[in-house]
Amino acid sequence: MAMRTTTGTQAEPTASAIIGAAARLRRADPCPPDRVAAALARVAEQWRDEQHVFRHETVAELSAALKMTSALLDESLTALLEPLTAPALESLALRLYRVNRLFGFVMPGNVPGAGIHEIAAALLAGAAVILKSASRESVFFGNFLGSLTATDPAVAARLEIVSFSRNESEAMGAMWAACEGGVVAYGDDASLAALAAAGPASAGRFAGFGSRLSGALVALDTPEGARPSAAADAAADGLARDVTLFEQLGCLSPHHVFVLGGAEEARGFAARLFRALERLARRLPPPARLPLGAGAAIRGLRERARWRALAQPAGAAAANEVALWESDGPTVIYDRSAVFSAAPGYRTVFVSAIDSIDDLGARLGPAAGKLEAFALAAPSDKRRPLEDYLRRLGATYVCEPGRIQSPPLDWPHGHGGMFALLREAAR
Amino acid sequence: MTIYDEVLSFIDAPKQARFEALALQVFRHQFDTVTPYREYCTRGGVNPSRIGSIDDIPALSTLAFKYANLTDSVTNLSPSDGRTFSTSGTSAGLDERGRHHIPRVDIYHASAMSHLRRMFFADGTRMPVLSLHPPADRMPDSSLGQMISWAMDEFGLGAGRCVADRKGVDTAAALDFLREAQSDGAPVCVMTTTAALGALFDAMRSAGVRLALAPGSRLMDTGGAKGQRIPLGPEEVIQHSAALLGIDPSLVVNEYGMTEMCSQLYDATPFNSRRSDHPARRRKLGPAWLEVAAVDPATLERLPDGHPGLLRFFDLANVGSVSAILTGDLGVVENGFVQVMGRAADGEVRGCALVIEQFAAKAR
């Protein structure tokens, strides 16, 4: 079957388009999980090649639409697709219930490819998928489906893409009616609540991936007065990558880095992180011009930090509460005792000190109950208890710096909402 | 003539051709007399003698007023001539309230009243004033309160009434005043924050009250969504003022002002201007001694007319502090008219979703 992307028109209203897509998916033959895994792995492998035609086209189109440079998009997509290997896909397939049902996906528009983990899980479980692409980013999944169609048309026939506004209640109603397995949606908490409310009252048919924040913890045990270690450099380089990919616009992008230790160590790490971000910006340049809202928000943060820093009494830098590093690209704000702060994206990071690991829980602020991932830089012998602590705080994924944009396929995104939905649908 | 008197003279009789030269003179004065501003300029490598146009003058973020004492500390002025106003502090907490010390409050008075006269009392009519914001005697650190007190003195008639204090607005007392005004059949003026107006409208709806104030009655609101549980948009202010108070839409005028600036902008309506915008996208007009530009937030360069950017002002009336002000508000400038789009959010909890740029209302 050829790739099919359907957009509602006057001749074919969106609701009819969804009903038609659902009918085709019901007629499509089921695919065994090993065949789905092989096809997805093959496509991901193709897409890890920057010259692959569908990927190349995607990067060219998205670069203009999302105001991200091609170099950045290339590296970001490679990181996103990294976990989609044959062994990982096969392993996940073995652990999923078989669900020969239809699921609807309402995709996000901020980060291309976001949601691919859940789509892969659904297809591996034997489900068919109607995917509503985001109006702002309608390229990635269309082209990914193009590759899948060329690789294995039978697997591609398990996926249909439709296009409409999530505010079109008739279309969303048709989506709910057609997708007896459930609806998976990405968005801010308010719009997800509205989407869920528009569905049937029965529980267990909706998985929403809402507003979430990610951060980082640096716990390197550098003795006071000791020379900065190679581990600190590595952590800074890794975190610079975590922050930079996707221009910090996804729920996996760190906003705030907490450094366990004294103020001097935290301030030093902030400077180190800024230098790492600057180095990376030479290879992965930021957009020539930021979106107005983000640019204005970054300007506001910089000005506030600048004037707070200037207002500090003269003395040793280590005694300072606030410091600012800025350039045409990144912004790093050291704010010694700040609570977790949400940044406007585009390589804007807060760095704070914590005296003990227990302080972190008290400093979550707006991120409390909304944590997604944490990058953790720690010596191997200290790592396990810190990972456990971060998970207890709500992090669904804890990783080494530099790995945050490549969560494994069994990552319990949003506390495992997709896996719970599949489990419920299999009953 | 001192620089202060030169500015006062310009406000009294603006000559547009002289604006930029006077602006440059004011900047040099501020560089010499406002220590934190001089340090800021010096850190940026600014040499005042090389500043040749208003666009070259470093604009200072309004946020700086929270952390630095930005006032003329050199010129020998009588302390009794000055006043200090504070921002409400709701956006960053009371511990980070901005302070604007104005060493010659007569210049603030001249600026505020002159432009208010043009934009809100252009017909020369005097009328009783109802204030839904505390006046200067109840809230001496409020620049808006001071402005309303002056307005009551200059444009008011008979017993005006203020029905607010620091704790809130007495909507019952406001309604009594307005009912009485309706019976008198003479026009009245309402000066208010948008939040207090929202409370009045709520009270009127709850009580099932609709009034028809006399023709010529008018309303000025300011502050936007700040402090409102359910924000009242500009279009709703105009509609509800007509429906609940009977005020002609052209006489419902929104003010854009801030503690950090001695001059204000007002909606251009058929009452005060030949321009007539749709209520949903009204544009504002400032006085001749206030220059406004939309600038790129990253480069701070002036954007062409019609392009949205951060609003930057040069306010001659700020002669005793800092005139070049960079706000946190987004807007569009076209032929000198300003459309204010709101304030850019600092940061937001970001989901796996399309991130919509969020704007919060400006803060006074």
How would you describe the overall organization of this protein?
- The complex is a heterodimer of chains A (427) and B (364).
- Chain A contains 16 helices and 13 strands.
- The relative contact order of chain A is 0.14.
- Helices cover 46% and strands 16% of the residues of chain A.
- Chain A folds into 2 domains: 5-211, Aldehyde Dehydrogenase, Chain A, domain 1; 213-399, Aldehyde Dehydrogenase, Chain A, domain 2.
- Chain A is an alpha/beta fold and 427 residues long.
- Chain A has a 7-stranded mixed beta sheet, with helices on both faces. A 6-stranded parallel beta sheet of chain A has the order 1-4-3-2-5-6, sandwiched between helices.
- Mean pLDDT of chain A is 91; it is low at 7-11.
- With 364 residues, chain B is α/β, with parallel strands linked by helices.
- Chain B is built from 9 helices and 17 strands.
- Chain B has helices spanning 3-12, 19-33, 35-43, 64-67, 105-120, 143-155, 171-184, 194-207, 234-245; strands spanning 60-61, 83-86, 99-102, 129-131, 161-162, 164-165, 168-169, 189-193, 218-222, 252-256, 265-267, 284-285, 290-295, 308-315, 324-334, 337-344, 359-360.
- In chain B, the strands form 4 sheets. Chain B has a 7-stranded mixed beta sheet, with helices on both faces. In chain B, strands 1, 13, 14, 15, 16 and 17 form a 6-stranded mixed beta sheet that branches. A two-stranded antiparallel sheet of chain B has the order 2-3.
- In chain B, helix 9 (234-245) links the parallel strand 9 and strand 10 (252-256).
